[in-house]
Amino acid sequence: MLKNIFDKPSKYIQEIQTKIKIHQDKLKKFKGKTMAFVFFTKFCDVQCSHCFFRSDNEGYDLPREQYEFSEEGFEKFITFINSSNNGYLSILGGGEPFKKFEYIKETIKRAKTDRIVIVTSGMWAKDYDVCKRMIDEMYEALCQRKTPTKVILRISMDKWHISKIGINCVFHIIDIFKSFFEEKENFELQLHTLTGDDSIEEVIKHYPGCTKTEQKKYVSDNEEILKIGLYRYELHFTDSYKISVGIAQIFHSNLKVNLKNPNIDLEQLITLFDNDMKYNSFSNPSLVKNKNDEWGLDFLISYNGNIATWGNEQVYGLNNLYTDSYEKIISNIYTNIISYSLLDKGYFYRTQIISEVNPLAVLRSKAIHIRDYAGASILEENHTVLYYAIRVIQDYLKEKVLTLEELSGLSKELLNMIKSKKYIVKKWYENTSYSIIRQYMERTPFDENEWRDLFNLIYFGHYMVSKEQVEEGIQYYNAHTNKKISKLEDALENSKEHYQRLIERLTFMKPEAKRLCMKNYEKLEVI
User: Which end of the chain has a smaller Cβ tally under 10 Å, C or N?
Assistant: First the structure.
């Protein structure tokens, strides 16, 4: 009987990862200026309901590096940026970056980049004097640089932030920039809001004579690195001071979106997501377009050190600042054929192939409305990852990017599958008994919370599993917990801790990095 390689997908994924490398002469290289987005921490006091992180400040497990940069992690981040030919560095909110204010100042002093954009709620500006001191310190850091750059403080201003922290924070920051930094071309204030939100009108009312220009659609916030926003306009004050305002599409991130709920407009969620990919990301979130039509890599650097090109994080190709050098990370991005295919062919190529066998994975990755980790979501199921990798290899063989001679080291059954027609590969995929349930059964040690979280997501329609596969999973769960649940509903949970686990499930730290940081902590305890 022929072996169905989709019954044991992880073995063959690893084989592809280690044995298939596109020759350097045939690799596309994206040598333009890069863009990078970094989260220094996952913690935030505002805790907006639409924010993916649902941030809190209730402590964390060891190692601490799972949730925010250590000093070592920050130094490795600076090394990475300074090696990356960076043209645009964004210090993101989600976790409030000003909780790591020293890191902000050190980045301004030391990061080799043309532009630094610091995204913040502004909650640190409640007291005018404190606000003035912190802005002064940022400008002093800018003045200490050895090479020029532009620093932009971007305030997130919308109804969620105002309801939590008030609007005086914004007024304090505006007043300070108007009074002390209007003439400083390389130190700028911007505001940022969301579609359908009228919070900026409060600024216009507060400052007599303030007006706004006509908004423009799909424009960049600079001319060098094309960072496209949905809308942009300017506020003009009577003293000739002006502030650029960006408007973004609101994404209601929800890892527990009920895909079986007929009242949810899934078509609208998909349209918003795809339009953002098409118009804001040029159909490829992993690349950034330079003004000279060159392309550079677009990096996402997580608070736990994980680093990938945007939308390209995957379980089988995790990179991390704590364990991987800049050179190794770049090599992994190019030599991992799954990762490289997104750089080369773009977002819609990936979704088209995966839709051939697992349209629910594509729907899930869009409906949860989290662009940052779209890759981790769509490539979560091992047998789907294997199918995608095989189809990519088939296309590269047709294009003569790969040759059969370069695949000679593969196992016979994998090579035969690659040589098969597309409909044959698809048939083998459809005939496997493997599912997300079997994938969890392969994990050791058994974790009850992981299984409960999986059951919740299966209940909400996130995975293609049969009734028999669900029953198999429940039996496995009961045998390992001495519980007696009989249906998915018995495992449903709606706690804050449960949702935090779902976030960790999608963003977990590279295991090797986590072990390294834990060993470092244990050494400190001994000392």
Answer: N
Tokens of 468: 């028999």
Residues of the chain with pLDDT under 70: 1, 49-50, 53-60, 524-527
Model pLDDT, residue 443: 95
The predicted structure's pLDDT at residue 497: 86
According to the model, what pLDDT value does residue 182 have? 94
Shared domain for 81 and 20, answered yes or no, is no
Q: What's the number of domains the chain is made of?
A: 2
Amino acid type, 28: K
Question: Number of C-alpha atoms within 13 angstroms, CB side, residue 118?
Answer: 26
Query: Is residue 198 included in any domain, yes or no?
Result: yes
Q: Are residues 272 and 354 in the same domain?
A: no
Residue 291 lies in a domain: no
Closest CA to 343 of 401, 278, 279, 288: 288
Which structural domain range is residue 95 located in?
34-280
SS (H, E, C) 300-354: EECCCCEEEECCCCCHHHCCECCCCCHHHHHHHHHHCHHHHHHHHHCHHHHHHHH
Tally of residues, the chain: 527
Whether residues 223 and 372 share a domain: the answer is no
Interatomic CA distance for residues 20 and 18, integer angstroms: 6
Which pLDDT does position 321 carry in this prediction? 98
Say if residue 376 is in the same domain as residue 506: yes
Is residue 66 included in any domain, yes or no? yes
Query: DSSP letter at 165?
Result: H
What is the pLDDT, as a whole number, of residue 56?
A: 63
CA dist 518 and 515 (Å) reads 5
From the list 184, 115, 91, 196, the residue with the least C-alpha distance to 143 is: 184
Q: Does 298 fall in a domain? A: no
Q: What is the pTM of this model?
A: 0.95
Q: What is residue 263's predicted lDDT score, i.e. its pLDDT?
A: 93
Q: Are residues 451 and 400 in the same domain?
A: yes
504, 304 Cβ separation under 8 angstroms: no
Q: 407 φ, ψ to 5°?
A: -105, 5
pLDDT score of 315? 86
Distance of alpha carbon 314 from alpha carbon 148, whole angstroms: 36
Are 41 and 99 spatial neighbours (Cβ–Cβ below 8 Å)? Answer: yes
